[in-house]
Amino acid sequence: MKNVILIGMMGCGKSTVGAILARRLGMELNDTDAMVEEIEGRSIPTIFAEEGEEYFRGCELAVAEDLSERSGRVVACGGGLPLRRDCIAPLKASGTVFFLRRDPGAIYDSVSMEDRPLGQAGREAFLERYRRREPVYEKWADHIIEGHSTPGEAADMIMEVLDK
Ligand code: S3P
To answer: What are the angstrom distances between the C-alpha of 112 and each of 13, 32, 82, 154?
Structure first.
């Protein structure tokens, strides 16, 4: 089975939806953030603080390349991963990409930004970052998942696409 790849803004629910999907499909869940943390032996905020964003993006690339050579995985991507073509292109070639679209204001107001270094600059900066990223997410998506009110519903919508 091809990989199922979830992209979207930080906090949109990729990991939660990914866990539901993986359970329903009997597939393994791979969360790129968790993989980077495991390889590095430190948290994402610590990696950003000690090494900076570019270093983190390099770790993300190594994980993306590794996953793109595997199959039958649900891959929950860090929110910034699709910004680099060399990260997302091989992953896209390994499966089907779903963009989980959620209103960025609703995300910011309901999700903790505590462990998200790029979510620390306030609401307006978050909305602006989303505005810049949305076309990138749209560009790489095979399918856009929107209008769902719970992670379970988003997973249902993805299952429907996969069943076709
Ligand atoms: C980032 C999103 C985070 C994490 C890192 C950078 C981003 O992942 O990869 O903090 O650039 O949007 P989530 O999307 O899981 O929060």
So the answer is: 12, 19, 22, 20
Q: Give me the amino acid identity at 159.
A: M
CB 54 within 8 A of CB 102: no
pLDDT, tens digit, for every residue of 89-145? 999 999 999 999 999 999 999 999 999 999 999 999 999 999 999 999 999 999 999
Tokens read off for 113: 């930004």
Nearest CA to ligand 1 atom 15: 78
Q: What is the mean pLDDT of residues 71-91?
A: 97
Rounded percentage of the chain residues whose pLDDT exceeds 90? 98
31 lines ligand 1 (CB under 6 A): no
Residue nearest (by alpha carbon) to ligand 1 atom 3: 78
Residues 6+ away with beta carbon under 8 Å from 24: 155, 159
> Given ligand 1 and candidates 30, 33, 102, which is best to mutate, with the most ligand atoms within 8 Å of its CB?
33
26: left (phi over 0), alpha (psi -120 to 50) or beta: left
Q: Which atom of ligand 1 is nearest to the CA of 76?
A: 15
Res. 148: pLDDT tops 90: no
